[in-house]
Amino acid sequence: MTKKVIIFDFDGTIADTVDALVNVANRLAVEFGYIQITPEELAILRNLTSREIIKYSGISVFKIPFLVKKVKSELKNKIPELQPIHGIKDALAELTKQGHRLGIITSNSQDNVSEFLKINQMNDLFEFVYSGVTIFGKTTIINNVLRQKQLKLQEVIYVGDETRDVEASKKANIKVVAVTWGFNSYEVLSKQKPNFLINQPEELLDVVNTSS
Ligand SMILES: [Mg+2]
Fold this sequence. Notes:
Layout: E1 5-8, H1 18-27, H2 29-32, H3 39-45, H4 50-57, H5 64-76, H6 88-97, E2 101-106, H7 110-119, E3 128-131, H8 138-148, E4 156-160, H9 163-171, E5 175-179, H10 186-191, E6 196-198, H11 203-210
Parallel strand pairs: 1-2, 1-4, 2-3, 4-5, 5-6
Helix pairs in contact: 8-9
Bound molecules: magnesium ion (MG).
């Protein structure tokens, strides 16, 4: 069995942050000039790609960096209330037991992620946490991590819950597992043609150990 380096997205993939993010986004709606997200609207957004969501929201692209910054700082107060995705901790513990190495690449802040991992006794599971600031820029961060850690493309797998995760991994030429327990729906994720599409954290074990 080949040992892998498995890189995870944080929001929606490891931490159950979708509701918290929607609440924060709704509080900032007036200030940033977009409409509040109702449950009906959230159902629509789940079926859109990251690019389509920005277009749909009507928010100015120039405001996005400010919005992202504000969301991260507002989310900081919510960290103690956030829960890990059901079953993820066991799946990750099993993967490390099997000798795979785990890391995180997130557009959330390093502080938020570290605090969450500490509170939930998950920090021993991860070898690294990298944080990046751009919304479509995960490819650059993935490439930097591959270079810094001198990883071969074939030994790396990325795991994420959004279409932009699939897109970034494909651009970086690494295998990608899309998960349906986070933000984007099965339908829109499958259109991005990830290497694997899974519904439960325990499926990670099969996917990692069957991918050569
Ligand atoms: Mg995510």
